[in-house]
Amino acid sequence: MLKKITERIYLLEHERKTDRPSLGLIVGEKGSMVVDSGNSPKHAGEFLQAAEKVTKGPIKYLGITHHHWDHIVGMEKMNIPSVGSRKTQSRLKDMGNWKWDDASLEKQKKDGVFNDFVINAIKGEMKEEERKDFRVAPMDIIFEGKLTFDLGNITSVMLEMDGPHTEDTTLIYVPERKVLFLGDSIYGSRKNGKFGYDREKLFMLIEAIRSLDVAYYIVSHESILDQKEMEEFFGELERASKAAGAETSAKEGEK
């Protein structure tokens, strides 16, 4: 069931057990946009079924926030024209060569791509038989910098960033409703087996987010945050980063 954030903005909330991220829906008079495709065909299908009850027209676009598996595996099932940054497209083309059977997942673990939590999540969402022929496909529409969609009495603005989580970060902003989809952008990343934040990228991202007029912040694996809660989160990150120097630890378990 979709949760209504504001008029025309809905969310299928995240689930920790199998690492399902939140999936967003921006409903316009001329068409709608989905934010991220989910971590499995099943996840994507459940979202589409729920979306049918609130959309006013066709779902025209699927906006992708970054290349990580749990945000892109549902693309084929959704079968909606997908949109993302050129950097994300490059990563998806590389991922197109990946195999997803159990043996291949174990190899990804040895190579440091996936950890046990991620592998268990993938197996929990998709049986091996489903994964044997699965391949990641490239996106349909590519942009650099900024791309705006007029959905009919509401707009969706895709903003390319270089964040501390991935270099192919895209934020999706709905100015009329003051809603910002952040994907995983405010999380850190893993380097040499350790989780941390790139201080410079973190501060630049926070500055960019603060420049937008936002009332509701949607982080893919968190509850909906209001402005006060987001500022408290930023404050904690800034204080920890300044105390630690060049890098500060992130929560283990984030990809």
Automatic annotation (TrEMBL):
Transmembrane segments: none annotated. Coiled coil: none annotated. Signal peptide: none annotated. It holds the Pfam family Lactamase_B. Residues 20-221 form the Metallo-beta-lactamase domain. This is MBL fold metallo-hydrolase. It comes from Isachenkonia alkalipeptolytica.
